[in-house]
């Protein structure tokens, strides 16, 4: 057997140009397979990390996915609001530890504006236990202070002290803008890889202030209240869009959820963000599975390339097989020789593919993080990676059965004398 | 046991063929004999050599090599019998292109423990045996290292093949047109060296060729067509 291993090795080296092409095809396909798997896992993790530590998300009654989308992902719009009174009442429930009010509906140059209070900076958690931190400046303090997510600041080139004019509505270009009451950037948040990066945060009072002289979504004619006068007015909001709830004890989750869902004064919906995230992810699972299927087929293509190479070289190698038979090689030796060649190619392809993956990750990691806010950790190969690599090598060996079998058949027909 | 090869009433037919390609009622080769078998293409020499090498078995009849009935052995047993006792030289392309000279010569030792043991017994280790045989076949040792066998001339390649057939002293040497690709001078010196080695080891040599000029150098000459009653089809060369 040692002899056959050495023979297979030497034989491959002697044909290194074509062999390396086969190896490269398998390596690239393995990189794709592992890369897709890696991105899939990281995306799922990052998705699940969007919101942590929040027990319930409450909004006007709709579906759990729309509520999750507009409250957490800032996608789409709420169908209805929650009255301030209901919010206060539910927030004062003895089981509730904290709440974060969310008021949505305005935007700044395509980025959503979120009205909230300073509890947001204290209680909001993502990626399990991480809380928000500032790279520059501090929380909003004044009515017209704004805190920018990292991507907003990057994309628009803002720094602390700059003026921000909020547009009414959420289109890329607002129908109308609140230019009479500009905000001042008070702080910029560190990058989180979550929708927080794409959000402009202001106080609930700020949201109230810019709409104080508006009626039914438009500036009220004849009514102009300037920024300085607004500060002196009562800026208690009449309604908010949604709120996040942290409970004193997790065991109370379902009780509080039921209480909110059955709340008499207005129809509300409380969802468990983890459950809703799962639901949403399963909707996206089809695309994810399609990607995996494609990468598996690319690996199959690579292996077919290898089999083609081994089969096409077979006729030129009939002499070689006759020589080996003449010096005492059995058909089993011939079979193992070809099987081992396939195994070497597949194994080398798998290992190089893994190497290529790390190379690409090293190059692409900062780009992916800054472009998509997706942090892909570069660690040791996971057990899934190893299973995939093993599967590729096993598939390579199985594919090698085809040329190995043909080689034995040819060699048995030829004997030790190949007719020239 | 005086005969290295004994064949009686052998009939061999390809599974797809209608008539036998080989029908040899009686054929024997004495131990240490140098036998020249002449035969043109189509006379059944390929099949005869495959039978002697234990790669093919007759449909009926007995093939006995060194007293062992090859037709009674399993194919695995025949493979190891060939590895242990038979050295083969082909007409052309005798060498595995991706192995060095010495590695090519060593191949039989890789598949036969017996030949490895014999090479070790005579020369201390198989590599020394290979180097000695290559030198004896007139190949200078500066050819041994690193050179690809495909760089060798045909004459040099045939000498490497002879060294490989001789290593570990197999009792029977079978050569199929080993000189037909060589020019006059190369042919003569190749055969001289081959005979010298065979005489030194006391091996039995069966050489098949259509070149009747070689005949005079051998102990005995048989025409395969006389031997083989099935050889009726005459394929022009």
Could you explain how this protein is built, in words?
- The complex is a heterodimer of chains A (420) and B (237).
- Chain A folds into 2 domains: 177 residues, no CATH class; 216 residues, no CATH class.
- Helix content of chain A is 52%, strand content 17%.
- Chain A has 13 helices and 18 strands.
- In chain A, strands 1, 3, 4, 7, 8, 9, 10, 11, 12, 13, 17 and 18 form a 12-stranded mixed beta sheet that branches. A two-stranded antiparallel ribbon of chain A has the order 2-16. A two-stranded antiparallel sheet of chain A has the order 5-6.
- In chain A, helix 1 crosses helix 12, helix 10 runs parallel beside helix 13 and helix 11 crosses helix 13.
- With 237 residues, chain B is an alpha/beta fold.
- Chain B has a domain of 158 residues: 3-Layer(aba) Sandwich (Rossmann fold).
- The longest helix of chain B has 18 residues.
- Chain B is globular.
Show the helix and strand layout.
The complex is a heterodimer of chains A (420) and B (237).
Chain A: H1 2-14, H2 16-48, E1 56-60, H3 64-71, E2 82-83, H4 84-91, E3 96-108, E4 111-116, H5 119-123, E5 125-126, E6 130-131, E7 134-137, E8 145-148, H6 150-156, E9 163-164, E10 167-168, E11 176-177, E12 183-189, E13 199-203, H7 204-210, E14 214-215, E15 218-219, H8 227-231, E16 239-240, E17 242-247, H9 253-261, E18 268-271, H10 273-312, H11 318-326, H12 331-372, H13 383-414
Parallel strand pairs in A: 4-13, 8-12
Antiparallel strand pairs in A: 1-17, 1-18, 2-16, 3-4, 3-10, 3-17, 5-6, 7-12, 8-13, 9-12, 10-11, 14-15
Chain B: E1 3-12, E2 22-30, E3 34-38, H1 45-52, E4 60-65, E5 68-69, H2 75-85, E6 86-89, H3 101-111, H4 113-123, H5 126-136, H6 154-166, E7 172-176, H7 184-201, E8 204-209, E9 220-223, H8 224-227
Parallel strand pairs in B: 3-8, 3-9, 6-7, 7-8
Antiparallel strand pairs in B: 1-2, 1-4, 4-5
Helix pairs in contact in B: 3-4, 3-5, 3-6, 4-5, 5-6, 6-7
């Amino acid at each position: 057997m040692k002899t056959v291993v050495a023979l297979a090795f030497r034989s491959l080296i002697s044909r290194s140009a074509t062999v390396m092409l086969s190896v490269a095809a398998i390596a690239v396909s393995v990189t794709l397979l592992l890369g897709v798997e890696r991105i899939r896992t990281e995306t799922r993790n990052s998705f699940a990390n969007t919101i942590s530590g929040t027990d319930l998300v409450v909004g006007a009654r709709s579906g759990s996915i729309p509520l999750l989308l507009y409250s957490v992902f800032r996608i789409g719009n709420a169908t209805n609001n929650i009255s301030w009174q209901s919010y206060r009442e539910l927030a004062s429930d003895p089981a509730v530890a904290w709440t974060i009010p969310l008021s949505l509906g305005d935007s700044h140059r395509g980025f959503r504006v979120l009205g909230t209070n300073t509890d947001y900076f204290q209680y909001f958690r993502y990626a399990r236990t991480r809380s928000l931190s500032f790279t520059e400046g501090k929380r909003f303090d004044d009515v017209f202070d704004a805190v920018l997510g990292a991507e907003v600041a990057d994309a628009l080139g803002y720094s602390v002290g700059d003026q921000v004019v909020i547009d009414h509505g959420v289109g890329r270009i607002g129908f109308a803008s609140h230019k009479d009451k500009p905000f001042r950037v008070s702080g910029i948040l560190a990058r989180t890889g979550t929708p927080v990066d794409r959000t402009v945060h202001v106080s609930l009072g700020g949201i109230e202030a810019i709409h104080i002289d508006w009626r039914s979504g438009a500036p009220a004619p004849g009514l102009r209240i300037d920024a300085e006068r607004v500060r002196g007015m009562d800026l208690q909001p009449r309604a908010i869009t949604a709120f996040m709830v942290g409970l004193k004890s997790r065991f109370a989750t379902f009780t509080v959820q039921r209480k909110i869902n059955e709340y008499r004064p207005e129809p509300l919906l409380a969802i468990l963000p983890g459950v809703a995230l799962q639901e949403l992810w399963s909707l996206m699972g089809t695309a994810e599975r399609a990607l995996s299927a494609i990468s598996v087929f690319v690996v199959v293509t690579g292996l077919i390339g290898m089999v083609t190479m081994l089969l096409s070289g077979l006729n030129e190698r009939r002499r070689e097989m006759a020589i080996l038979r003449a010096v005492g090689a059995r058909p089993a030796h011939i079979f193992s020789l070809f099987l081992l060649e396939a195994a070497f190619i597949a194994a080398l392809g798998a290992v190089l593919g893994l190497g290529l993956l790390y190379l690409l990750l090293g190059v692409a990691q900062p780009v992916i993080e800054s472009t998509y806010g997706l942090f892909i950790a570069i660690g040791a190969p996971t057990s899934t990676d190893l299973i995939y690599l093993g599967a590729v090598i096993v598939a390579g060996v199985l594919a090698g059965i085809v040329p190995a079998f043909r080689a034995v058949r040819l060699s048995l027909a030829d004997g030790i004398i190949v007719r020239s | 046991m005086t005969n290295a090869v004994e064949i009686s009433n052998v009939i061999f037919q390809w599974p797809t063929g209608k008539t036998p390609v080989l029908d040899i009622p009686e054929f024997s080769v004495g131990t240490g004999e140098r036998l020249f078998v002449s035969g043109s293409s189509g006379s059944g020499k390929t099949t005869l050599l495959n039978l002697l090498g234990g790669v093919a078995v007759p449909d009926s009849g007995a093939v006995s090599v060194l007293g062992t009935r090859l037709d009674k052995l399993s194919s695995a047993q025949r493979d190891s019998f060939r590895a242990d006792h038979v050295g083969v030289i082909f007409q052309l392309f005798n060498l595995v292109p991706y192995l060095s000279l010495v590695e090519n010569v060593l191949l039989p030792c890789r598949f036969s423990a017996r030949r490895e043991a014999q090479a070790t017994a005579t020369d201390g280790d198989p590599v020394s045996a290979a180097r000695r045989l290559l030198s004896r076949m007139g190949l200078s040792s500066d050819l041994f290292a690193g050179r690809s066998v495909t760089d060798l001339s045909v004459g040099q390649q045939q000498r490497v093949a002879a060294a490989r057939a001789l290593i570990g002293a197999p009792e029977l040497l079978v050569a199929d047109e080993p000189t037909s690709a060589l020019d006059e001078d190369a042919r003569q010196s190749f055969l001289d060296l081959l005979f010298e080695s065979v005489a030194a080891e006391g091996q039995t040599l069966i050489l098949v060729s259509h070149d009747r000029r070689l005949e005079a150098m051998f102990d005995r000459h048989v025409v395969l067509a006389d031997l083989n009653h099935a050889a009726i089809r005459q394929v022009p060369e």
